[in-house]
Specification:
The complex is a heterodimer.
Chain A (H helix, E strand, L loop, with lengths): L4 H26 L5 H19 L3 H22 L4 H22 L5 H9 L7 H20 L1 H9 L1 H6 L4 H19 L8 H15 L3 H26 L3 H29 L2
Helix pairs in contact in A: 1-6, 1-7, 1-9, 1-10, 1-11, 2-3, 2-4, 2-9, 2-10, 3-4, 3-9, 6-9, 10-11, 10-12, 11-12
Chain B lengths: L2 H7 L6 E10 L2 E11 L4 E6 L5 H8 L4 E9 L2 E2 L9 E4 L13 H6 L14 H13 L15 H14 L4 E5 L7 H16 L4 E5 L11 E6 L2 E7 L38
Parallel strand pairs in B: 3-8, 3-9, 6-7, 7-8
Antiparallel strand pairs in B: 1-2, 1-4, 4-5, 9-10
Classes of the chains: A mainly alpha, B alpha/beta.
C-alpha cells in the first residue's frame, strides 16, 4: 500500500485533515454550530466548480470562495438575530446549487467529478495540494491551540466574553475562517459534504471521556487522526469510498464508546 | 468619598454614571431618563418586578443594550471611549453550558482573565495567581479541577463570581445572584459576597428580592415601568430593613457606605 505514491500522499493528507478538523470542530460544537462546516462545504463547492470551469487549480479557488463565504456567514450571524437562520440556508443551498450547475457546464465535468469533491477520493491528492494542505493545517493548529483560551471563552459564553471586553467579532471571524480553511484541506480525502462529520464526530466521542475542555480537544484530534488514516487504509484495502469509510469508522468508534460507557455505568450500579 | 480613593485612583469620579439615559433593545427604550451613579465601596441593589427595567439598567452598564438618549460614563470616561472592560466584572445569572463539552472550574475562571491578556501570550505567573486567588475567594479550591457539570447550582454561581474576580475588577455587576439557588446555598453565597465586601468590593446587583444579602446592601434602587421609583440607603427602604434574617456579615455594615475605611481600588479586589 505504501509503495504507491498516491497512497503516501493520501495518508499524509488524511493525517493533516484528521488533526485540523476536530481542533476546529471542538469550538464549533461548544458554540452549538456543529453544522456550520457542512454549509461551508456547500459554498466551497461553487469555488471548485469555478476552478474547473476556468481550468485553474481547484484548491486555491475553493479556499478563496470558502473564506469569503465564512466571513459573510459570520457577519450575517452577527448582524441579524431573527433572519440569520434563513440567510444562512439560502447561502448554503446557493453554494451547492451553483456548484452542481457549474461543474455540469465545465469541460470534462461528470457526475464522477462531482462525487470526488463531495465525498473524497484517495487518488486525487497532488503533490502541490499536499504542500498547501500542510501550510494551511499548521496555520489552523497555531490558532486553534495558541488561542485556545480565547476561543474557548467565546464558544462557552459569548455574552460574558463581550461584557469582559474581548474582541468577540474578531474571534468569531477567525474561527469562521479556520473552519473554511479546514473544509478546503478536507476536500480531497473526506469530501466537502462529509467534512462536517470529521469536525463533529471525534469531538462527540472525546467529550464522553474528556475531563476538561483541553483534554477533550487533544483527544478529539487524536481520534481524528486515527480514523482518517485508518479510513484511508481501509478504503484502499476494501476498495470502498474514502470519505464515507472515514466517517463510518468515526461513528463506529463513537458508538463503541457509548456502549462501553453504558456497560460501565450499569456495572457500577449493580456492584457498588 | 474617602480620601484614600483620591490617592489610589487619582480620579474623583463615580464608577458608573448614567445621566438621562434611555436604553433598550432595538428602537423601543425599556428604561428612560435614568439618572444613576455608583461610587466606590457602595453595594447597590437594583430591585423591581419582572419587566421593571432592572436588568436593562445593568445590561446598559455592560453596553449590551442600545442607548438612545443620555450619557453613560464608566470610571469618568464616556462609555464609547472606555477600553478598560476588565475593571468591570460581570456575573451573569446562569452558567452558559455551550455545546456540552466538559470544562473544569479552572478553565472557566481563567476566561475571566483574558480581557487583560494579549493574544498568543502564555499565562503569566500573575495570571495564574489571580485565577488561584479568585477560586480561593469563592471557597472552591478543592473543586478547581472538577467538571462544571458536576457542581451544584450554588457552586456554579460561585464559579461565575470567581470568573469575574479573576480579571481583578473594580466593580462587580451581578444579575440575580440568588435566583434559582436553594436556601443553604444562598447563605453560602451571601458569605462569599460578605468577604468580598470586606476586601473593599463595589457591587451593583439586580435582584427580585434581597433574601440573605439584605444585610450587605448599602443602597437600594427600586425600579418600575422603566423608571427609578426610589433610591436611597437600605435603612430607608421599606420591607428590606437589614435587621431580620440571617446576617452573614461579621460586622454591621450600615456605616460603611459613607466611608470610614478607605476602599481598595485600582488593583481591584485581589490586591
Amino acid at each position: 500500500m505504501l509503495s504507491y505514491p498516491f497512497m503516501q500522499r493520501a495518508l499524509v493528507a488524511a493525517f493533516l485533515v484528521g488533526l485540523a478538523a476536530p481542533a476546529v470542530g471542538t469550538y464549533l460544537v461548544q458554540r452549538r454550530l456543529a453544522l456550520i462546516g457542512d454549509g461551508m462545504g456547500h459554498i466551497a463547492l461553487t469555488g471548485v466548480a469555478l476552478a474547473l470551469l476556468t481550468g485553474t487549480s481547484p484548491v486555491p479557488v475553493a479556499l478563496a470562495t470558502a473564506i469569503l463565504g465564512a466571513v459573510a456567514i459570520e457577519l450575517v450571524r452577527w448582524r441579524g438575530r431573527t433572519s440569520a437562520d434563513l440567510a444562512l440556508a439560502i447561502m448554503f443551498y446557493g453554494g451547492i446549487a451553483g456548484g452542481v450547475v457549474l461543474i455540469d457546464r465545465a469541460p470534462g465535468g461528470t457526475p464522477a467529478t462531482l462525487t470526488k469533491y463531495l465525498f473524497g477520493s484517495i487518488s486525487t491528492t497532488s503533490r502541490g495540494d499536499l504542500a498547501v494542505f500542510a501550510v494551511l493545517t499548521v496555520l489552523v493548529l497555531v490558532v486553534a491551540l495558541g488561542l485556545s483560551n480565547e476561543l474557548f471563552a467565546i464558544s462557552h459564553d459569548e455574552e460574558y466574553a463581550a461584557a469582559a471586553g474581548m474582541p468577540v467579532l474578531r474571534l468569531n471571524l477567525l474561527l469562521a475562517v479556520m473552519t473554511a480553511v479546514t473544509v478546503v484541506v478536507s476536500m480531497r480525502i473526506v469530501g466537502l459534504l462529509l467534512i462536517s462529520a470529521l469536525m463533529v464526530v471525534p469531538v462527540a466521542t472525546a467529550q464522553l471521556v474528556g475531563r476538561s475542555f483541553r483534554s477533550t480537544l487533544v483527544l478529539s484530534m487524536l481520534i481524528g487522526v486515527v480514523v482518517s488514516v485508518a479510513g484511508v487504509a481501509l478504503s484502499f484495502e476494501q476498495k470502498t469510498q474514502t470519505g464515507g469509510t472515514i466517517v463510518l469508522l468515526a461513528i463506529a468508534l463513537f458508538a463503541a464508546m457509548v456502549i462501553v460507557g453504558a456497560v460501565r455505568r450499569t456495572r457500577s450500579v449493580v456492584s457498588p | 468619598m474617602t480620601p484614600g480613593l483620591h490617592l489610589s485612583t487619582g480620579v474623583d469620579a463615580p464608577i458608573v454614571s448614567l445621566s438621562g439615559v434611555s436604553a433598550g433593545y432595538g428602537d423601543a427604550p425599556v428604561i428612560s431618563g435614568i439618572d444613576f451613579e455608583v461610587r466606590p465601596g457602595e453595594v447597590v441593589a437594583v430591585l423591581g418586578a419582572n419587566g421593571s427595567g432592572k436588568s436593562t439598567l445593568v445590561k446598559t452598564i455592560l453596553r449590551s443594550t442600545t442607548v438612545t438618549a443620555g450619557a453613560l460614563e464608566l470610571f469618568g470616561t464616556p462609555a464609547g471611549e472606555f477600553r478598560d472592560w476588565h475593571r468591570v466584572g460581570y456575573v451573569p445569572q446562569r452558567l452558559s453550558i455551550g455545546g456540552g463539552i466538559p470544562a473544569t472550574v479552572r478553565e472557566v475562571v481563567t476566561t475571566g482573565r483574558l480581557a487583560r491578556r494579549r493574544w498568543f501570550r502564555p499565562m503569566t505567573t500573575a495570571d495564574r495567581h489571580a485565577v488561584d486567588r479568585a477560586i480561593e475567594l469563592v471557597d472552591l479550591r478543592d473543586k478547581a479541577g472538577a467538571r462544571m457539570s458536576t457542581l451544584s447550582g450554588g457552586q456554579q454561581r460561585r464559579v461565575l463570581i470567581a470568573r469575574a474576580l479573576a480579571g481583578e475588577p473594580d466593580v462587580l455587576v451581578m444579575d440575580e445572584p440568588m435566583a434559582g439557588v436553594d436556601a443553604a446555598s444562598q447563605l453560602l453565597l451571601a458569605g462569599t459576597l460578605a468577604s468580598l465586601i470586606d476586601l473593599g468590593a463595589t457591587i451593583v446587583l439586580v435582584a427580585h428580592e434581597l433574601g440573605p444579602i439584605g444585610p450587605l446592601v448599602t443602597r437600594v434602587v427600586d425600579m418600575g415601568a422603566g423608571q427609578i421609583t426610589c433610591d436611597g440607603p437600605i435603612a430607608d427602604h421599606a420591607g428590606h430593613a437589614p435587621h431580620d434574617d440571617f446576617d452573614p456579615h461579621p460586622h454591621p455594615h450600615e456605616g460603611d457606605s459613607h466611608g470610614e475605611q478607605p476602599r481598595s481600588s485600582g488593583l481591584g479586589l485581589l490586591s
